Amino acid sequence: QRVTLKVNNVAIKEVMRRLGKMTGYDFIYNVDRSNTLKQVSIDVKETPIEEVLKQCFYPLKVEIVSKEEKTVVLKLSERSSLGGVSLRPPGLSQLIIEGRVTDKDGRGLEGVSVFVKEHPKVGTITNRDGYYSLSVRDGAFIVFSFTGFQRKEESIGQRTQINVTLAEQESALDEVVVVGYGTVRRGDLTGAVSTVGEKDIRATPIVALDRAMQGRVAGVNVTTNSARPGGATTVRIRGTGSVNAGNEPLYVIDGFPTGDLNSININDIESMEVLKDASATAIYGSRGSNGVIMVTTRRGKVGKSIVSYDGYYGEQRVRRKIPLLNARQFAEFVNDANVNNASAPYFDGSSDERPLPSSLGEGTDWQDVILRKAPIQDHQLGISGGSEKTRYAISLGYYGQDGIVIGSDFKRYSLRTNVDSDVSSRLKVGLSAQGVHTSSNSARTEIAGNTAYESVVSSALNYSPTFPVWNSDGAYFSNQGPLNGLGADNPYAMSQEFTNKGSLIRFLANTYAEFKISDHLRFKTTLGADLQSNKASNYISRLVITGASLGGSASVASAQTINWLNENTLTYERTFGSIHQLNALLGYSYQQSDYETATANANTFNDDFAKYHNLGAGSTLIPASSGVNQWRLISYIARVNYGFDDRFLLTLTGRRDGSSRFGTNNKFGFFPSGAFAWKVRNETWMQDLKYLSDAKLRISYGLSGNQEIDNYRFLANITPLPYVLGGALLTGNAPQGIANPDLRWEKNAQLDIGLDLGFFDNRLSFTGDYYVKTTSDLLFSVGVPTNSGFSSMLQNIGRVQNKGVELALNSTNIDHGGFRWTSAFNITFNKNKVLALDNRTEFRAGSDAQVHRTNISPILMRVGTPIGNFYGFKMEGIFQNENEIAASAQPNAKPGDIHYADINGDGIFNDEDRTIIGNANPDAFGGLNNTISYKGFDLNIFIQGTFGNEILNYGTFDQMNMTGGNNQSTRVLDRWTPTNPSNSVPRANAAGGSRLLSTLHVEDGSYIRFKNISLGYTLPTSWLRSLSVSSCRIYITGQNLFTITSYTGYDPEVNRFGSDTISQGIDYGAYPAAKTYLLGLNVKF
Amino acid sequence: LSCLAMILFSCESRLDVTPLSNLTDATYYKTAEDAKAALGACYASISNPDVFIDLATSDDAVPFLTGDANRPLLWRYDITPDNAFIRFYPAAYTSINRCNIVINRLPAIAMDENLKQRYIAEAKFLRALAYFNLVRLYGGVPIMTTETDGLEGLEVARASIDEVYQLIERDLLAAEQVLPLSYDGIDKGRATQGAAKGILAKVYLTRAGTDRGSPYWQQAAAKAKEVMDQGVYDLYPTFAQAFSLQARGGIENVFEVQYLTDVRGHSLGRGYGIRSAPIYPGGGAGIARVAANLFNLYQDNDQRKAVSFITSYSYQGKTVELSVTDPNPANAVSFQKLWDKTATTNGGEGTSFPILRFADVLLIYAEASNERDGGPSVEAYEALNRVRQRAGINALSGLDYESFRAAVWLERRLELTFENNRRFDLIRTGQLLQAIKADTGFGRNAQIQEHHTLLPIPQLDMDVNPLLEQNPGY
Questions:
Q1: Which of A464, A723, A792, A910 to mutate to test the interface with B (most CBs of B within 10 A)?
Q2: Secondary structure (3-state) at B279
Q3: Is A72 helix (H, G, I), strand (E, B) or coil?
């Protein structure tokens, strides 16, 4: 950096103040030494700052000790060659105070300002290891001050040694926040951006970083789709804006937009910034509309090398089993069902298979058979450090989780290296690279197919408790008779005989070079690649139904992704006349992804020995298949930040994005945004408000887009269709869909009004945002009349609105005598509404929500209501007698059958009587985090929940089908009988009631969960010094210990169809959720 | 800088990314090969024939009662538009659209003109077949005769039953003019002139309904006779041969859906086989079992009984005797008419599914000529007795109009069971309600009413086309 400065006989302090204003740096230096200097005169033009400093402090020698974002620490010392210059002798009555300043981990802090409170000019700074020595003549307190840390005062008294530990500043407005293509001080933010810090990311044992946001960030709703190890999550930032395009946010990992979070080691993450409003996300243009998560991994810092180990080991158990009938209860139920259908009781004592119910006991608990206690562990070894020129951070990680369902697990091995190097004063280069290998075994849960014999959980819930695990000959017991109407398979056999192995090798690397063209202009270029190689290997042995029919079935599928990115930005940063701050950015970006797959299968094996390792041994040939998918994105980026007098901030951004995914007529889209912030607290008329330490008003509006649809959707692709003629296999061709050359971006316009307040030195801080987010040109797979030959087509129709309020409150409740209690609370209220759908008022949403043995899509999209309504009949109760039936619209019913509401009142019960019976969108969700620390102990209690959402529990279709063809929930013990006039559970009836979707299947999904309770103890440094350990903490954690919910399935956090937008909140055959206990250790050397 | 801008903008053409693995409709339909594949897609669309609707809504079978609840609901005539097993509707239109593509696109393709006209005729035949099934199941349906290439004009109201039949007749008459009598080798299985005439005979038979004076009887008899006189089709000497793998492309199936064992097959043998019996790859599914009242109708010396039904099986030395009354589906006498015992995989059965069998043509002729002539002619007897004698039962003689009609109806039931005829025959002859009410085995107690002669339009299809009107009663 170069400066132009002209001063004449000015005090050194004043010169440094001016330099500070010009360069944007705070200069910290030993005041006691510089006090020896006379006033200085300087006249320089475009001179490097180093040279100017040299002139200022002459004759002292000046060294730049550290140079961080905003702070430059200078060390002044005597020049040995200037031995003749005498310094002012110290006073006589002085006290020399010595000591060391450390951070919470015991590391010496270099460059901390240490001064006497009463005489701020009497001060020094700490040396490399944190030691200082200060001469004090009078005064009662010493102040320790360091950027990024809380200021601390100590009374001097008679002490000559004062050691202090500085705590990091928690609500620092100076904290640097990562935003798209740059960073900004939190205090200067104009958009809605939330941060999840390292502590929160690592507080709970989680596999992937998206779960770290759950309950911690206002506006972000995180739902685990499947509790299986490595299971995915659904993340919704400010509601669901799209129907058939993706709704998941964009993840940008060290500048590289990418996905597949399970293969990112969360221990490497330093912070995650959640960009929520359009002003923050528009810079990501076509991918910004669902929010952007900026992930920053840990980088090396100048200083001593630090070696650290972090690890935990724990055990998981099922959180809750679904209460099912035991053998005797089931046998009684089956008899009841048969008798009600005018047949003879099945369990009549006539044979060994049909004993009298009274002779039966508990029978087999199939849930116990497939569930287990399973270990979970995580280990991370890291080393980081660096010199002035080069900083590095290297880490090795291992995460291993066995699933609570037998045969499922997930393991991750990772290696990360981050390096930054200053090649010259103008050129800086760096690298972020991660190599990872993950491997997993999946149990058959939440799988497609919807037949009980394909899912181990469905089989365990449906298989009769009167069945044993084994035959007398040692083979798996199997029965497909009338007690197994759903065709379930032996659950234990399924857990043993299916092999579903997944393996991923991934290399994600991004390099950059930053060149300083002038003091104000920087050019940065990045080149990165995300290379993934996936392999999925499956085998189904001949001992389970699905495998037996195929004689054993093996498949090996491999996929390869090559995704690369080049981004180039030019940044201009300058302060004019000390009150106008300008930061402008121009950029160009190119990203391309090529995905290829190949799959081979074979069936009919002589034995199950080789599994999928020898496809050639299969005697049935199945044609191999392969595929390819490509997309490209070309973007132009611009942004201007303008700040006036530290009071007004203005941000304007724009991105022009071109995507290969859209119709030839609409490849490019333009996404502008603007934001304005007013730092009210910095107005002169606010200066007297003592308790208010911060106040900022923000307003932003902008457009962002969504391109998360499959490739080539604008074309009518020709698909191959095999057929047989003349005894030969031939291939026909027909279009797969209807072409749409006008297919274009989904547009998302968002208004955000935000208020940031801080009280009592920001001990209490509040952030509130109100937003209105309107998605138009909705990418919507419209159900088209099936007489077209097709069932749906992707079009840009309709509008959806999300409106909401987000509140976040952080407070230090108590900080007294070493006892510290902090709380972080957030809550979000989001209202989702479909504003328009083409020109129709409602749509039944496609067929992707069809579940087990019903032919209806349970989802209705209706204008004026939220996305994802459950649509079905309303259950009024149970018919108690013939009179009630006669008065109803169901003349063929019998007492004990379900009485449905005749919604349209026409006296006929039919499909016209369906209505909206629930919705998966919560009215509110949030979290409360409490941390209490005292004398080395720390206690963390994290509570999280959602309110007002419903779950469509498809399990009820099986567990309360009342036929006796499969096991039932214990809820059927209260079934209607002439002597038990239940009004909620119908009668047992082997003929089968109608499987009509109704309010019987919809349940309240609200819950409050103690997600994490953790108690830790940090060992006193005095114990550790001899072991050359600088810090050590041990802790115990319980995850999911208590959940308050009325939901009757395994867990209220469930999504059978994953992140599929229109089919949220559906539960069928889900992997059971676990609670986890663990013991952990953090050590630093 | 301008150079840089040039480079950047020239990159934008890189956004024109088209699939490397698929053709698109913009680049397709240019060559004779394309034409053949386009027609192939039409044949592919009929490879999933549904026998369940016929079995469950007639009196021939009993579904597995504690299994999938939607199946017994259909059997008990507790039918809602939500029922998963009535969704033939969209599949038929997928077939129709593919046929429309062939009919619309082929005229522009430069290729052998004779072959082109034949391909178009085959597509017309398949289109007529789809509409014939639609009109019989659901009544009047939307008529689509152009290819779907956009969203315009897709919301179409239902045409009348007459209008649908007019289209069917027009297509079949046109196809009949062009299609060859038979094919060689690799083309065996394609629609023939006989297939078009035979289906047309069935169309006329259906249209004649219960009207004794209907002119359609004459037309049905004439078309059936034309097929009989072609000399292309015949009955195999034994009933079993007609359903063997060797019958593929053979003399008896006037039109069939072909399969290849373990390559591209069906699972009609296993699916309707004895539940959980280990003799099938994967165990029998027992979707439905034969009803006692059908099984007991066969004379003991009727060859067809043993070919159509399995009454016992042996596995690993143990023999299991099956019964038509034991409620346990693992002991149920089950269908095996189309079972390919050589298949080693589930879904790999290679026997052809007959859409129209020569025996059917003979019985159409017998029935229609009896109606036309007010009594059985020699030729009518001959047609009926060819079917009976091939089955190993006695020839009939000396019957009056009524008893001959009854004899043909019974023969159709015994001969054509499991071939998608019983429901349509019962409706055509006005016997559905009475037959279903008379079928009380396994506590059927079906709530059948007059409107049940048509199925409801499936709810999913109702939901996407606001112009569709549901059939009355649903």
A1: A723
A2: coil
A3: strand
Of B82, B83, B345, the CB nearest to A620: B345
Buried b (16+ CB within 10 A) or exposed e, B257-277: bbbbbbbbbbbbbbbbbbbbb
Query: What are the DSSP E strand ranges found in A140-201?
Result: 141-145, 152-155, 164-165, 176-179, 182-185, 193-197
CB of A738 within 8 Å of any CB in chain B? yes
The kind and range of the H/E element at A947 are strand A937-947
Residue whose token pair is 């360069």: A23
At A850 the pLDDT is 47
Q: Quick one: which of A892, A890, A891 has its CA closest to A900?
A: A890
CB contact under 8 A, A717 and B24: yes
Residue with tokens 């676990």: A1074
Q: Closest residue of A to B24, CA-based?
A: A717
Contacts of A757 (CB under 8 A, 6+ apart): A692, A694, A695, A696, A765, A766, A767
Contact of A486 with chain B, judged by CB distance below 8 Å, is answered with yes
| Domain assignment of residue A26, given as a range | 1-89
Query: What is the tens place of the pLDDT at every residue in A1032-1073?
Result: 899 999 999 999 999 999 999 888 777 677 778 888 888 999
- C-alpha distances in Å from residue B319, one per residue of A851, B185, B288: 39, 42, 22
Count of Cβ atoms closer than 10 Å to residue A942 Cβ: 23
* pLDDT beneath 70, residues of chain B: 1-11, 25
Q: What residues of chain B lie within 8 A of the CB of A716, using their CB?
A: 24-26, 149
Structural domain includes residue A935: no
Query: Of the candidates A60, A89, A118, which is a domain's last residue?
Result: A89
pLDDT digits (tens, 9 = 90+) for B223-250: 999 999 999 999 999 999 999 999 999 9
Report how far apart the first and last C-alpha atoms of chain A are (Å, whole number). 37
Beta-carbon separation of A721 and B40 below 8 A:
yes
Which B residues, 410 through 449, put their C-beta within 8 Å of a C-beta on chain A? Answer: 443, 447
Report how far apart, in Å, the C-alpha atoms of B234 and of each of B152, B194, B308 are: 47, 12, 20
- Chains A, B: CB contacts under 8 A, how many? 313
Does the beta-carbon distance from A994 to B76 stay under 8 Å?
no
Q: Say whether B24 and A716 touch across the interface (CB within 8 A).
A: yes
Q: Check if the beta carbon of residue B244 is closer than 8 Å to that of residue B294.
A: no
Q: Residue type at B427?
A: I
The answer to whether residue A66 is domain-embedded is: yes
Q: Which residues contact A813 (CB under 8 A, 6 or more apart)?
A: A821, A822, A823
CA distance A243 to A222: 18
Q: Are A218 and A211 in contact (CB under 8 A)?
A: no
Measured at the CA of A599, the angle between CA A598 and CA A605, to 5 degrees, comes to: 150
Closest by Cβ to A789, choosing from B64, B98, B248: B98
A 10 A CB-CB count for A646 gives 12
- List the CATH number of the domain containing A35: 3.55.50.30
* Contact yes or no for B276 and A620 at CB 8 A: no
Distance between start and end Cα atoms, chain B: 71
Q: Of A89, A113, A134, which residue constitutes the final position of a domain?
A: A89
Dist CA B417 CA B60 (whole Å): 8
Per the structure, the count of domains in chain A is 2
Does a structural domain hold residue A114? no
The residue whose two tokens read 């890291």 is A382
Q: Which residue has the tokens 């070493």?
A: A818
Residues 141-160 of B with CB under 8 A from A: 141-142, 144, 148-151, 154-156
Provide ipTM, 2 decimals: 0.93
- The CA distance from B138 to B461, in Å, is 12
Q: Could you tell me if residue A974 is inside a domain?
A: yes
A405, A573, A1052, A1068, B389 from A969: Cα distances, Å: 20, 66, 17, 14, 57
Query: Which of A733, A796, A910, A959 has the most B C-beta neighbours within 10 Å, making it the best mutation to test the interface with B?
Result: A733
